[in-house]
């Protein structure tokens, strides 16, 4: 498919102070769109000026939430190259989400090539400072103007780009996490393993309640026994125990994070024992009480590595690693960001140059 291009003739001023970027607030001059119509497949790929779109008030996504998205980043290296980090993983996951949401599959290689074209057009928007990147948000939504419940016949796939800094204002400093025991995010057989807006909508109430008592995020427990740890919502989680690093197994309710997978591979390459298994909140409390919970951290594209300094479950407030950045969290953060920024040799073959 040939990608049409319409240049933005009124480009915006780029942010001057990169320390103020924050996350996901500013958008570049262009975006990518293609459409799906039943009988035609995906068609009309184009790069156009960034701007509002017009859809019917009856568009099915607005009523029934048939929507999926991804999150990945482009990095500017010191020698002026632009690198993507494992985009194949994001597009494979997009298609896995598509399958669950009855959204037609996309051609992963075409989407990656189209993404590269979009990034090339808006290359000057990739920030330069340490810790910054161009956050990439591909998404697909149902647009049929119809109020019946059925899989869409008309969809849009779009990509927008956002120069971003830190996801958490805390940066690499430890965050406070509240273990949610009333609400659940997802259950096995549901959509927890997909990146769909509904999972995030399900998290808002608990997140609000946690924020009101000064916690950054909530840690979700499984929806049946309310016992086994799943994820934080914007991050997967890892526990450094005595002699073993544990991350919850992918049980269908937990997102298969790209940063999660990369951390497992990195840690194993350094000789650590990493187990993907069930881990209950009781086990975490016991390990903490016995002085065997050495570190806890979250992993995610937006957040990278986020050490957890305090974990609260009901009335038990657990301080972890003296509320300091742990050795393993720091090593993972340094290794991942060095790889992503092209500062160290990529022996894993994870980075893809945009050229
Ligand atoms: C990401 O890490 O890219 C995510 O999609 C999390 C998001 C909710 C900001």
Give an overview in words:
- The chain contains eight helices and 17 strands.
- It has 355 residues and is of the alpha+beta class.
- Strands 1, 2, 3, 4, 5, 6, 7, 8 and 17 form a nine-stranded mixed sheet that branches.
- It is globular, with a radius of gyration of 21 Å.
- The two termini are 19 Å apart.
- The model has no long low-confidence stretch (mean pLDDT 96).
- Residues 71, 234, 300-302 line the site of 2-OXO-4-methylpentanoic acid (COI).
Q: How would you summarize the topology of this molecule?
A:
Elements: E1 4-5, E2 30-37, E3 41-49, H1 60-64, E4 67-69, E5 72-76, E6 82-85, H2 87-100, H3 108-121, E7 133-142, E8 154-164, E9 175-179, H4 197-201, H5 204-212, E10 217-219, E11 236-241, E12 244-248, H6 258-269, E13 274-277, H7 281-289, E14 293-300, E15 304-313, E16 316-319, H8 327-340, E17 351-353
Parallel strand pairs: 1-3, 9-10, 9-15, 12-13
Antiparallel strand pairs: 2-3, 2-8, 4-7, 5-6, 5-7, 6-17, 7-8, 11-12, 11-14, 14-15, 15-16
Bound molecules: 2-OXO-4-methylpentanoic acid.
């Amino acid at each position: 498919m040939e990608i049409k291009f319409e240049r933005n003739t009124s480009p915006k001023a780029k942010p001057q102070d990169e320390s103020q970027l924050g996350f996901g607030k500013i958008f570049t001059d262009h975006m990518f769109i293609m459409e799906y119509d039943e009988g035609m497949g995906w068609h009309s790929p184009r790069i156009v000026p960034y701007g509002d779109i017009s859809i019917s008030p009856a568009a099915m996504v607005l009523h029934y939430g048939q929507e999926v998205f991804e999150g990945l980043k482009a990095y500017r290296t010191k020698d002026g190259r632009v690198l993507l980090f494992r985009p194949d993983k994001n597009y494979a996951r997009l298609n896995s989400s598509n399958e669950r949401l009855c959204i037609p599959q996309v051609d992963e290689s075409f989407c990656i090539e189209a993404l590269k074209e979009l990034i090339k057009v808006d290359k000057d928007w990739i920030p330069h400072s340490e810790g910054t990147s161009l956050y990439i948000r591909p998404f697909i939504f149902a647009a049929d103007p119809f109020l019946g419940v059925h899989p869409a016949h008309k969809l849009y796939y779009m990509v927008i780009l956002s120069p971003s800094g830190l996801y958490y204002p805390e940066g690499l400093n430890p965050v406070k996490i509240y273990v949610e025991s009333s609400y659940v995010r997802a259950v096995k057989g549901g959509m927890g393993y997909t990146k769909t807006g509904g999972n995030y909508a399900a998290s808002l109430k608990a997140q609000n309640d946690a924020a009101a008592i000064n916690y950054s995020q909530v840690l979700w427990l499984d929806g049946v026994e309310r016992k086994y740890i799943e994820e934080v919502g914007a991050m997967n989680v890892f526990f450094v125990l005595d002699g073993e690093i544990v991350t919850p197994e992918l049980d269908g309710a937990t997102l298969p994070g790209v940063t999660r997978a990369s951390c497992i591979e990195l840690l194993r390459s350094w000789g650590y024992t990493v187990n993907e298994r069930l881990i209950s909140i009781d086990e975490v409390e016991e390990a903490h009480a016995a002085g065997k919970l050495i570190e806890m951290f979250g992993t995610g594209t937006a957040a990278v590595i986020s050490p957890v300094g305090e974990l609260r479950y009901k009335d038990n407030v657990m301080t972890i690693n003296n509320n300091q950045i742990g050795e393993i969290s720091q090593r993972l953060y340094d290794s991942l960001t060095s790889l992503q920024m092209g500062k160290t040799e990529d022996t894993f073959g994870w980075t893809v140059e945009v050229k």
